[in-house]
Amino acid sequence: MIDRSIIEDFLAPTISTEVAHYTRIGTLCHMISPGGWSSARATPVQFLNDRRELALGLDVLRNVAGKRPESSRQVRDLIERLITSHGSLATDAFQMSFSGQRDELGQWRAYAANGYGCSVVTDASAVRAIADIAGWVIYEPEKQASFAYKVLNRLRGERQEEVLMQLITAAASFMKDEGFKPEAEFRLLRFPPASEVEFRENGERLVPFVDFLKKAGATLPVKKIMIGPSWQLAELLPGERNRNHVVQGIQRLLTASGLGKTAEILPSAIPYDPR
Amino acid sequence: MPATLDEVRAAIHVAFPDADLDKIEERDSGIGGIIVSREFAGLDVSQRNQLINEKVLYPLGLRGLNVGVLYALAPRETLYD
Asked: pTM surpassing 0.90?
């Protein structure tokens, strides 16, 4: 069992606050079912769109581990190995991203069908409760170095190779390039046993994932569903907006899932036209 | 077929003739262990890993995907220094 405090103690504290997951509207069909948000897929970091993002964190850890007081040779070797090798299922960090910003143009464009998707708003502490490790991503280089120093310091007593690799990978996962700062990412990590890992096709390749809600029989609260700016719902009069076919589809899904009275549907307030 | 323990040991023996091959073993996470060799003396962690990659892992190609962590130590060094 991974000691989550080794990472989480040095991230900004997780309090009960809204966090949003940006996705395509079609994804809601398998995410939400009677009972709530009951299916959520986490994917290893190296299978995400930006495969370099783990490299940044590992590089920070390598730099800090090599400075006095140096980390053990084992830790420095493992960081180097994670940077240069293929990794393994045993140490893959399966992750799912949320954001502290539920209506942010960059994420609408990148993760939600160029603004035609939605963001599903839930609670950060509920996400943390079903994670092996969860917390806010660090973007500033000085804060990343400080975080790496503290984590590496906590690793000094640990010698178990698999645990070390998981913790190093986890630490690297919470450091991203400053250019992503507007995303204000809250990240969930899972290290599932191999028996829980499933595979899906994506562009003629196989991508591993773990459905951490379904496997645990758990649900996340759905507080709001925000509809992307490309639908331009904010410009409509309230009556027209409520009759809109995109709103109606989501509203029916929420009602059928028993969430019709608790989850709010909101339009993005951003005046973005993708045409 | 993925590389066997004997093949990995043989590749290490060719690359680092003075290494003790008993320290290479089959684990749940793949074939791994410690290579102790004079060739690593004076090299930093990055250079040592590069040497292992070039002399052991890359020649195995995709058959080397089941090779896990190979630590590189010079004589008298320990993993937990």
From this structure: yes
